[in-house]
Amino acid sequence: MTLTSFGPANLIKRSPETHPLTWRLRDDAEPVWLDEYQAKNGYAAARKAFADMAQDDIVQTVKDAGLKGRGGAGFPTGVKWGLMPKDESINIRYLLCNADEMEPNTWKDRMLMEQLPHLLIEGMLISARALKTYRGYIFLRGEYTTAAKHLNRAVEEAKAAGLLGKNILGSGFDFELFVHTGAGRYICGEETALINSLEGRRANPRSKPPFPAAVGVWGKPTCVNNVETLCNVPAIIADGVDWYKSLAREGSEDMGTKLMGFSGKVKNPGLWELPFGVTARELFEDYAGGMRDGYTLKAWQPGGAGTGFLLPEHLDAQMYAGGIGKVGTRMGTGLAMAVDNTVNMVSLLRNMEQFFARESCGFCTPCRDGLPWSVKLLMALEKGEGREGDIETLLGLVGFLGPGKTFCAHAPGAVEPLGSAIKYFRSEFEAGIAPTSAAVPPLARPIVVGA
Q1: Which helix (H) or strand (E) covers residue 55, if one does?
Q2: Alpha helices of 331-444 — where are they, by DSSP H?
Q3: How far apart are the first and last CA of the chain?
């Protein structure tokens, strides 16, 4: 995994002024423990927040900075914080860190937790102060065993230093923090499924409303934020709103920086902290180095398996939510995948849809039955045993499982790459139809939505 940004002008040095998330990283990729973290200005933002800022001022600062969720949905963080109840009589509130990083082709949060665990803890400490939460949980993907070890050690270090626990920094504010490892379910990335799992229940999404800010963990007000989101908070508090906004490129509607990456058969697969608004072409050519010798770029996904495919001609899009939205999909997690010319799109989509079908919680019918149906059709097309009408059926499923048609966003994310793959590479799907296949029976044909 590449951690040092580089570009056409040779190495770009990470600095606090330009790389708020990653400037403290060690060149040897070892964790930054408490003494080194504090020597690099760690917990200075927390001390400022506790000594000089009212709790509501912290919320307003994060809101004014334009920080948005970095888990994929991109909801404004300050607005989300503002949904927590103002009633001072509610003395039990929770802050949850969503560290269940199960999105295929995404590993940004893992890097932060393994190498900068105190950055996450400081971000949670400031957030807890702002939200008046007395207890926090880091809900961690169970397979991230190294991250769990490093986070637990960092929590103990912070406790020993008086940065967690009772009467933090002499403020009278108490905050306990626990690392909770999950059992490895993609659906736990949905905040209410995560809450159910934390409570020991089956990881099904909950009906909303009520939203977690009103009724969350054990029925109490709860705020759920992503790892990278929380790691942005200390820099915003330390250096201010205007500085944070200035980090983004001109034209970007999203503020600050973002951990972005490229995987696949590129020369330099890796992860870099870059300003919002950088073009995908810069990310692909200048940072990832373009395709390896002997391969050409066929398609790419901008941010995880749940985002639609794009073509090489779309590389000039700016990497922020609106910029990627202009070319027809979502930015997602910001970690792109290059699909090379040797990959068959039907096989790739069959693999993806198998994953999504397996990870469905099974609660709602469109997702529970629709995703396995898509896998069955894709397997037939992959083997050259498809029938006339199969592609139309797949497109019908894309419509039936789209936004607003299912209980949560799992199925819409699952079928977005399917719809885009058929749009751009339909001939590869048509090649899987058997020459002598019979027409699909009427009952297997999709009903036109809205007809």
Answers
A1: helix 55-65
A2: 345-359, 365-382, 390-400, 410-430
A3: 50
Query: Which stretch of DSSP H or E encloses residue 274?
Result: strand 270-275
Residue with tokens 């927590």: 84
Longest dimension (CA), the chain: 79
Name residue, tokens 């930015």.
331
Cα Rg, the chain, nearest whole Å:
23
Q: What is the pLDDT of residues 103-149, one digit of tens each?
A: 988 999 999 999 999 999 999 999 999 999 999 999 999 899 999 99
Domains of the chain: 21-245 (3.40.50.11540), 256-340 (3.10.20.600), 345-444 (1.20.1440.230)
Tally of CA atoms within 13 A in the half-sphere of 20 that contains its CB: 27
Q: How does pLDDT run across 264-284, given as a tens digit for each residue?
A: 999 999 999 999 999 999 999
Task: Give the rounded distance of the alpha carbon of 101 from its chain centre.
Answer: 7
Q: Are residues 168 and 174 in contact, defined by beta-carbon separation less than 8 angstroms?
A: yes
E strand or H helix that includes residue 179: strand 176-181
pTM of the model: 0.92
